[in-house]
Write the C-alpha cells for this entry.
Amino acid sequence: MRTLLLQRLLGTIPTFLGITFIAFALVRAAPGHALALEGDGGLRQGAATAAERREYRRLMGLDDPFLPGYARWLTHVVRGDLGDSFRDGRPVRVLLAEALPVTLLLSLPALLLGYLLAIPIGLISAARPGGLLDRFLSSAVFLLYSLPVQWVALLLVVAASGSGLPIQGLRTEGVSAASDLFAHLVLPIACLTYGSLAVLSRHLRSSMLEVMGQDYVRTARAKGLSETAVVLRHALPNSLLSMITLFGLTFPALASGAVIVERVFGLPGMGKLTFDAVLGRDMPVLMGAITLAGLMTMLGLLVSDLLYLAADPRVSLRGRRT
Amino acid sequence: MFLCLQIATAALLAGTTAEADPDWQEGRLPAAVYAGVPRIGGTLVVRLDQEPPSLDKLTDSALAIDWMLERKVLESMAEPDASKHPEYPLKPALATSWTISPDQLTFTFRLRRDVVWHDGKPFSGKDVLATVRKILDPSVRAMHLRNNFVDLEDISTAPGDDFTVVARYRKPYFLAFRALATLSIYPAHLLETAGDMLHSAIHRAPVGTGPFRFDAWKTGERITFVRNDRYWGRRAYLDRIVYRIVADPAVGFQLLKQGEFDLYLQLQPQQWVRDLDAAGLRKAVRRIKFYSPNYNWIGWNEQRPWFSDPRVRQAMNHAIDTEAVRKSFLLGLDRPTTCHFYLDSSACDRSLAPRSYDPARAAQLLDEAGWRDHDGDGVRDKDGVPFRFTFLMNADSVFLDKLTPYLQQELHKLGVEMEIRKVDWAHFVQLVEEHQFDATSLRWGNTDVVQDPYEIWHSSQIKDGSNYVLFKDPRADQLIEQARAVLDDARRNELYRKLGRLLYDEAPYTFLYSRPSLDAVSSRVRGIRPSVVWYDLQDVWLAPP
C-alpha cells in the first residue's frame, strides 16, 4: 500500500512540472501590462508613464529570459515560497490562504448537496426509463442546467431582498453566530449546485441502466429478490464506480472557485482572486492559483484511485485477480 | 380624445414632479442638507465598487485610496479648499502658513506644533522630509509621485526648528509647489522600517494625523475607519465610516433599496436616471451629480497616413453627431467639452464650441486633403493608400461598444472604412502606450483642477510619455514650457487658453465629454458636499431617524 502511494506520488512530479512549465510559458507570453487592473476605461494623468512601467517590469523580473525565470520560480516554490503579488505586495501564500477557505466553504457543500440530490434523481429515473417520472426529472434537470448562472444569481438576489436572507458577503458585521454564516451561504450554494444536478444524475442514470442489464442483476431478480433490494444492493453499488471517476474529475473544481457567483454575492474566493490576477497580469498570484489547481487535479486522481481500490474488489495492488 | 387626455396627464405629471423637486432631478443637494445642529455619533456606510490594492498612496494611485485617505486619514501641509469651486485654492492644514521666495525656487512651510500621529507619537517637519525621501527612493513603487519632485534640489528643516520645512528647487515649476503642499504626509518613525512599503504594516493599515483613523480591513468585504478623538482640529461627527465593497451593480442597487447604504458611489447612468425613482427612493435618497476633472476623447495617430493632415482629423470630428450620441448613448448626463483642462476652470476657452455634425463639411475637408475615391471602388484613397483603418478599443467599454458601430456607419457613408478591434484592458494600455493603433479612445482623469499638459501634449513625451497620438507642434511645446514656470494661476491659464485654441484647430483628439460622478446619499446624511476632491467626511453628520 505504501509503495503504491509512493509510486503514485513520484509519478505526479513530471505532471506537475509539465503543468507549471506550460502555465509559466502562457502567462509570460500574454501581452499586456501588469498593474493595469485599476483602469475603469480611463487613465490618470500624472500616473506612471511608459518608461516607469518598463522600469517596474525590470524590477519584477518580467524581462528576465524565460528559462532561468522558470527555474527561479520553481526553486522558490520547492522552498515553499510562491512569491509576492505584484498588485498588493502580499505573499501569494497569504492570498491563497485567505481565498481558499471561502471557496471550500462554498464548493464542498455544493458538491455534497449535488451528489445527495443527484443520486435519488438518477435512481428514480433509471427505475423506469422512459416513464413519466423519468421524463419529468430529465426535463427538469436539463432546464436547470441550461439556466445561465449570472441570471439565476441576480434573480435570487432580487427575490431574496426583503426576505431577510442576506445577499452579500459571508457574515453580517459584528455577528459571529454559525446561523448567520449559514444564511449567507444559502443562495450562493444553491447557484453552485443546480447546474451540476443534470450532469451527475444523468451520469448515474446511464450507468444504472447499463448495470441493470447485467447477468448478475438478472440472477438477483431470478432469486426472487424484491426490486428495491435488486436496485439498492446489487445495481447501485456497481454503478457508483463510475461516479468515483467523475468525482476525481470534479475534485479540482473544488479549489478553483466560481467567478460569477463570487462576484454577485461578494465572496472573496479563488475565482475572484484568479480572475483579478488575469486582468491585472499579476503573474505570481496567477502561477500560485494554477499550481494549486494542478495539485488539486493530481490529488483528485489519487483519491479516486484509492476509492476504486476500496470499492472495486477487481482492482488490487498486485494487478487483476482472475 | 383619449390620447390627448393621456398626453395632458403625462405632461401634468412630469410638470409637477419636476417642479416639486428640481434639485432631486438635477442631482443637486437641497439647502436642508446643511441645516440643523450637527449631531455626534453614528456609522456612515459607503458603497465601494472596487477594492483598492492597498491603502498606500506612496505605491498605488487607485482613486478609491485617495477618496478614503486624503484629508480623512492622511493629511498634507495644505489642502484644496473644497468650498471654493472651481479654483480650489490651497488652504492651511498641517502647515499654518507658507512663503514662496521671489525667484519661486524656495518654499518655506511653517507647521502646526499640536499634531500627533494616530499612534500617539508627535508630528514634526521630520515626517515631511521622510515622506519626500521615501518617494525619491528608487526601490519604492512611487513613480506616479516622483514626477513632481525631479527638480527638487534639497529639502530640510530650518536649523534648530523642526517645525519649519524649507524646500529648494532647481527651476521654477508651478506643480512643484502644489505637489509638495498637498503631499499626504506619512510618519517618519514608521517609514524608517517600511522598506519598499509593500511589506510593511502601513501598506494596508495607514497611520496618519487626520480626523479618522484606520480600524480594520476585511478582504473583499469592508474597510473600516473610526473617529480620531485626539485630532488637532474640530473633531469629526461620525463615530465610524464603513466602506462596503460590492462589485456587482445590480446587487449593490438591491442593497441600496434595502437601506443598507448612507452613501452610494458610482450608480450606473440608467440607475441614476430611472431606477432610483422607479424604486420609490425619491424620499429616502438624494441624487448627487458632479464632474471631476476628466474627459474622454478619440485620438488619431498622426503618423498613420490617414491622420497626418489636420483637415482629416477635423473631418472625423464633423462626421460624429456628438450631441445625438450624448443624448442617446449617455442619457444626456455627460457634459460636452472641447478642452483638455477641467471644464469649469479658466484654463478652458468656452468660446470653442464642439464641432457640429456636418457630413457635407467632412466630405469637403477630406476632398481638400486629397482623400478622394480615385479608383472608383467606393473607398477614398490617396497616393494609392485606401482610407481603411482600425479603431482599437478596450473590450470592457460599454460606451465604445455603442459608439464604434455608429462611427463605422457614419464613416462608411463618407467612403471611409473602419474596422473595430477589441482587446482587454491590460493589453489595450500596452498597445496604446506603444502607439500601436490607428485610432483609439480613452478617458483622462485627474483628482486636481490644476494640471500640467506636458506629459500628454509636449513632443518630448511621444517617447515614454503619454503623448500617444504623436502630436508634435513647436508652438504647443513652447506654450507648455512657458506655462510651467508661471506660478500665477490666472497668467498660466491665459497660456493654456492659447494652447486650447491650437489643439482645437489641429484636432489631434476629437474631444468628447466629461463624465459625471453619479452617487446617491441617504436623506439622513447632513453636511455632505461633493467637490472635485470628493467628499469631506469630517463635516458629515447623521440626522436622528
Summary: Chain A has two domains: 2-87+280-296, 93-272. Residues 106 and 234 of chain A are 34 Å apart (CA to CA). Chain A touches chain B through 54 residues (CB under 8 Å).
